[in-house]
Amino acid sequence: MSVPKNIATLTIVRYPTWAIPFALLSMAIFRLPLWLNKNISFWKLMGSGKNGTFDKTPDWRQWAIMTSQNPTKLNAVQPENWYGTFIHQYWAFCHCNIIHYLLEPLEGHGVWDGKQAFGALPKQTEYDGEIAVLTRATVRLKRLKQFWAHVAGAAHDMTGAEGFVTSYGIGEIPWIKQATFSIWKSKADMKNFAYKMKNHAEVVRKTRQENWYSEEMFVRFKILGCWPGRLEEGKK
């Protein structure tokens, strides 16, 4: 079996209410240990929306880290080592509820801050098992009204779609730099939602016709591991 060139990690962290100030502070102080970690080639610290997808209302308790790392150096079975001791001790001090995803980038297109964050990927592969999808975009300021007018219907359709497992709304800047990470039982289920359900298909069409985004990325991942379990509370 060939070793993938990049391994992605996504950690969703839910702070208790009393620790919200520590959650906000973490977005500043976590930058240094991530920057110093030589195994990490790309990282993003992000906040979350309340409803598991693009959302106007921030969830001040829920935050996220996503990275691209060297798989030959990553201790995949010990998520507490992914980002360094300081970050994990910080979460332990705050008594956070944490879920870690270990992901193999399979296919995709686009860039994140001008970079191929997860390496050069093919647009399609033969894989059709359980799949995770990252859809992220930087919305043009002059298109914000159109964007937010259309995403609610598509988000509602997603949660009721066949094969949908769970999703998280994450992003670097509220309302402008937005992403959805969703998990599906199969690629076929994901494609049926993306291209056959009316609301989502309409959003896809309008993004192209009206040039909503100044930058976008779409990546599909194979889920290699999940610790400790689904964080369903984060969708509420």
Report on this model:
This protein has 236 residues and is of the alpha+beta class. The protein has a single domain (7-235), classed as Alpha-Beta Plaits (2-Layer Sandwich). 27% of the residues lie in helices and 36% in strands. It has helices at residues 20-29, 31-36, 85-93, 144-159, 187-196, 198-210, and strands at residues 7-14, 40-49, 58-69, 97-110, 131-139, 164-173, 177-184, 213-227. Strands 1-3-2-6-7-5-8-4 form an 8-stranded antiparallel beta barrel. Helix 4 (144-159) runs antiparallel to helix 6 (198-210) and helix 5 (187-196) crosses helix 6 (198-210). The longest helix has 16 residues, at 144-159.
Chart the SSEs and their pairings:
Blueprint: E1 7-14, H1 20-29, H2 31-36, E2 40-49, E3 58-69, H3 85-93, E4 97-110, E5 131-139, H4 144-159, E6 164-173, E7 177-184, H5 187-196, H6 198-210, E8 213-227
Antiparallel strand pairs: 1-3, 1-4, 2-3, 2-6, 4-8, 5-7, 5-8, 6-7
Radius of gyration over alpha carbons? Answer: 17 Å
Distance between the termini: 40 Å
Number of helices: 6
CATH class: Alpha Beta
CATH topology: Alpha-Beta Plaits
Summary of the model, kept short:
The chain is of the alpha+beta class. It is 27% helix and 36% strand.
Based on the model shown, name its key terms.
236 residues, alpha+beta, Alpha-Beta Plaits, eight-stranded antiparallel β-barrel, 6 helices, 8 strands, 27% helix, disordered C terminus
